[in-house]
Design goal:
Number of domains: 1
Structural class: alpha/beta
Largest sheet: 5 strands, mixed
CATH class: Alpha Beta
Order of helices and strands: EHEHEHEEH
Helix content: 25-40%
CATH architecture: 3-Layer(aba) Sandwich
Length: 133
């Protein structure tokens, strides 16, 4: 059974927290869903870069690759920068990716956006802060 590739994209930062968050999230995904081969890539300041991570997928046994930005909302990085890094024209969500001598689908997911799970996380964070009263 072949797997899907997931490139989890983070912004990158001079502070270690962004990279840790992306890598920890990737580890959670790997643990919860063995259907994906998960790699991380960063827009700037951290390694591996998006392009380095794409290159690392070239010899993996996958039949599709999805690029998933770990960003909350649409903005210039989501609409222009990341598509440019993965070789998609602005506004496109589908393309192709060459690996192992064949072409597979390359898909680009949207940002997290509004979601009830995000609201649950904010309530959790508020309750944690209130526990310090």
């Amino acid at each position: 059974m072949s797997k899907k590739g997931m490139l989890l994209v983070g912004h990158g930062s001079t502070m270690p927290y962004n990279q840790e968050l992306i890598e920890t999230t990737a580890a959670y995904i790997r643990k919860q869903n063995t259907d994906f081969i998960v790699k991380c890539g960063f827009m700037n300041m951290n390694k591996p870069t998006i392009k380095e991570s794409l290159e690392a997928f070239r010899h993996e046994p996958i039949d599709a690759l999805v690029v998933v930005p770990l960003f909350l909302a649409r903005g210039v990085h989501i609409e222009k920068d990341i598509p440019g890094e993965i070789g998609l024209p602005e506004g496109s969500r589908k393309g192709s990716f060459m690996l192992n001598g064949k072409t597979i689908p390359l898909l680009y997911a949207g940002p997290i956006g509004s979601d009830p799970l995000l609201a649950d996380l904010m309530i959790k964070n508020a309750q944690k802060a209130l526990s310090n009263l």
